[in-house]
Amino acid sequence: MSESKPLALLREVFGYTEFRGHQAEVIEHVAGGGDALVLMPTGSGKSLCYQIPALLRDGVGVVVSPLIALMQDQVAALAELGVRAAFLNSTLTGAQAAEVEARVRRGELDLVYVAPERLLTPRCLELLAQSRLALIAIDEAHCVSQWGHDFRPEYLQLAVLAERFGGVPRIALTATADAQTRAEIIERLRLGEARIFVSSFDRPNIRYRIVEKDDARRQLLDFIRAEHAGEAGIVYCLSRKKTEETAAFLADQGVAALAYHAGMDAELRRRHQERFQREDGIVMVATIAFGMGIDKPDVRFVAHLDLPKSVESYYQETGRGGRDGVAADAWMVYGVQDVVQLRRMIDESEAGEAQKRIQAAKLDAMLALCETAECRRVRLLGYFGEAAGPCGNCDTCLDPPAIFDGSVAAQQLLSCVYRTGQRFGALHLIDVLRGEATPKVAQRAHDKLSVFGIGRERNAREWRAIVRQCISLGLLEIDHNAYGALRLAGESRAVLKGERSVALRAWREPRRSARVKPSREALSGPAHELFERLRAWRVEAARRHGVPAYVIFHDATLREIARMRPSSLDTLRGISGIGARKLEAYGEEIVGLVRSA
Ligand code: ADP
Ligand code: ZN
User: Which ligand sits nearest to residue 207's alpha carbon?
Assistant: First the structure.
């Protein structure tokens, strides 16, 4: 039986053995001339969905992408595979652009990447009208949504493509899942006839872990040292100042860390982003300004030192890890102060009341994810409307928390809130419960209250965990007007009267580092040694070719080489990630390295 043409291209050009998810269906549909809307999570392989049809069809594939900074790397990666690609954007000189245009006109390119504002110029539309087009791909199609956070006004005008190039198949792609965005894309890009492909949004190779914040920086350092030494990662912080402080702290401790935030000098910011993208093991400590357009497949961890504002943000940020399909960690530390701080930011913002209520509800959902005793993935996917079973690859699955009847503890806390007048924050309430004679306690005469010292048998951190859970259960709320004060809410009265019981996660001493087994199968001693030599070789090869290290080979490919030790070109050919062109370019060197190891 002969294999299909798309599969032959996948193997020969890209070096992969099989299609993933909906790739094969999308490719067949688009190669056959149909329009498509493709919704797939980050890292699942959207690019192949238009690259292969562009190779299969006559003419050039036009790719509209807002991510100018990435075009150069994408084109370089395609060149490494022997695909004829170029880009048109504002970074080119007039002469360079004219050269690309001439190649388009002469039919010498398989793919051309174009920035949307460029595409919409009369000159570019004219060029495309005169050329033979294989297809038009609209990447990051959610940029057309006015309600989304990545809205690009030029995207609205891309509707013109439907009119001007009626016979050319169009494919829109995005990793944004919700129904409203989908409807907007279909309407605004005139994709009413398009077939829609929706993939599961699960990212099974990402391991989710959320731990109690204690000494955040120290916890982060332990985590990196124990599990990700020398690897690339992103650390998200809320404030600009904190990104700089944390990066400096990590650098002091020997971690190759850089800071990134919107307030930095533009040139320095660009340099940091470029180093992260191109070098092998940089840790980027960033605000959420760092994100869209990060296309690095081998980010091995995403750490949060502060709570994201919503589950959407959390999922999008953590989704930047492990795009190559190899195990990655999403690791977060958080504490009750995070919730208080974010709540205050919402209250003090300029947004209208309705908007504030939405933001508060999103924060509540985020908190519930942190406090759940269920599988994190079940919660996450459930939030996006997708059903799933326990995953076995998150902290609650791997190390299930004990649940206890916390009714009495909750009653003690709630009555302490009530007796002190619903005007105090967690720290003071816990002092009262634990019978600490602080100046504030004395000044307010809280040592005279019946609740003074009733919670002595629990330490302060146990109490903090209980406070967080009571907030997440809606029994307590953070006062909008009094900074950080807790008030009774929801069914707290029923709990106080003993009519409702409360199940809580038992607190336990946080472990210094992971007690769960590492998320990736460790390489044996000799294989690890070979892997490190291959990485060093890759750094060199990347420098010679002027491309990011991952463009040469992904970690996954190097790991497999290290494990299999192919001693001939023929056995090397069988490894995922090694296509014909790369075999030719690097095969001898790799086999030589393996033999000498
Ligand atoms: P997305 O745009 O959806 O985030 P990409 O197209 O960048 O994802 O693909 C993510 C990674 O997965 C890339 O490194 C790509 O080479 C790899 N990949 C895509 N399809 C396959 C496949 N069928 N087999 C193996 N790797 C693949
Ligand atoms: Zn799980």
Answer: 2
When computed from its CA atoms, the radius of gyration of the chain, rounded to whole angstroms, is 27
For ligand 2, the distance from its centroid to the CA atom of residue 380, given in whole angstroms, is 10
User: Which of 67, 323, 559, 578 has the most ligand 1 atoms within 8 A of CB, as the residue to mutate?
Assistant: 323
Closest Cα to residue 465, out of 390, 516, 413?
413
- Nearest partner of 586 among 594, 477, 456, judged by Cα: 594
Whose CA is closest to atom 21 on ligand 1? Answer: 45
Task: Count Cβ neighbours within 10 Å for each residue of 230-250 and write b for 16 or more, e otherwise.
Answer: ebbbbbbbbebebbbebbebb
Tell how strand 60-64 and strand 133-138 pair up.
parallel
Tokens of 444: 């307010």
Please report the pLDDT score of residue 1 as a whole number. Answer: 40
Per the CB < 8 A criterion, the answer to whether 71 and 39 are in contact is no
pLDDT (tens digit per residue) in 402-440: 899 999 999 999 999 999 999 999 999 999 999 999 999
> Would you say the CB of residue 47 lies under 6 angstroms from ligand 1?
yes
322 touches 554 (CB < 8 A): no
Distance in angstroms (rounded) separating the CA atoms of residues 290 and 270: 11
379 lines ligand 1 (CB under 6 A): no
Render pLDDT for 383-405 as a digit per residue (tens, 0 to 9).
888 889 999 999 999 999 889 99
pTM of the model: 0.81
Q: Is the CB of 334 under 6 A from ligand 1?
A: no
8-state DSSP, 293: B
Which of 4, 14, 198 is the best mutation target for the ligand 1 pocket, counting ligand atoms within 8 Å of the beta carbon and taking the most? 14
Distance 394 CA to ligand 2 centre (A): 4
Neighbours of 574 (CB within 10 A): 12
| Alpha-helix runs per DSSP H in 169-209 | 179-188
